[in-house]
Write a structure and sequence with these properties.
The chain starts with 5 loop residues before the first helix and ends in a 5-residue tail after the last strand. It is mostly helical and 184 residues long. It is built from six helices and four strands; from the N terminus they run H-E-E-H-H-E-H-H-H-E. Helices cover 61% and strands 7% of the residues. The strands form two sheets. Strands 1-2 form a two-stranded parallel ribbon. The relative contact order is 0.13. The chain has one domain.
Length: 184
């Protein structure tokens, strides 16, 4: 695609995202679109770029398999975009916290959030996070970032994750994430 007009390029990607599964952007210019990983074009010619592309394709395959199987286990949410929405939120959180979580941990978080949203839609109440007050003192800014990342899902599914679940999710990211240098 032509990247001379960066604004037009970004809008084209956003339009394509509505009808295509975009797993990453490779470009000589840094392009930042939330939820879509960016790989510098020069990295494609190195082992690093090859590994990054392979990981993106493998991640996409795992998400496809989850999407194929999860909906028969959910009782209250039948929205086929749920897993894509969760994936978007996870990518956004990774970028905001500047961490990358391992694939197996990520899949656990995806399943946790899917069943959490499903149970909240069904009227369940979230569990309590022991030590929430102290956790908020230490990580209040990060909790706000997590809350903002989930806002569109809360609106879409008409649920409130609440501070307790936001704290649990943040704790998972902090405990399992590692710093990364891949630009998201």
């Amino acid at each position: 695609m032509n990247i001379i007009d960066k604004d037009h390029f970004v809008q084209s990607i956003k339009d394509m995202k509505k009808r295509c599964n975009i797993i990453g952007i490779v470009s000589p210019l840094e392009i930042s679109i939330p939820g879509i990983p960016f790989i510098p074009a020069i990295d494609i010619f190195t082992k690093r770029g090859e590994v990054l592309l392979k990981e993106l394709v493998e991640d996409d395959e795992v998400y496809r398999k989850i999407k194929e199987s999860i909906y028969k286990h959910l009782k209250n949410v039948k929205d086929t975009d749920l897993i894509d929405n969760i994936r978007y939120v996870i990518r956004n959180i990774e970028a905001l916290l500047k961490i990358k979580i391992a694939r197996d941990v990520e899949m656990g978080i995806v399943l946790h959030i899917a069943f959490l949203v499903d149970s909240l839609v069904g009227g369940s109440r979230p569990r309590r996070f022991e030590g929430l007050k102290n956790f908020k003192l230490a990580h209040g800014n990060k909790m706000a970032l997590i809350k903002n990342s989930f806002q569109f899902m809360e609106d879409k599914y008409q649920v409130d994750l609440g501070e307790d679940e936001i704290a649990y999710i943040l704790k998972l990211f902090i405990a399992t994430g590692s710093l990364y240098d891949l630009i998201y």
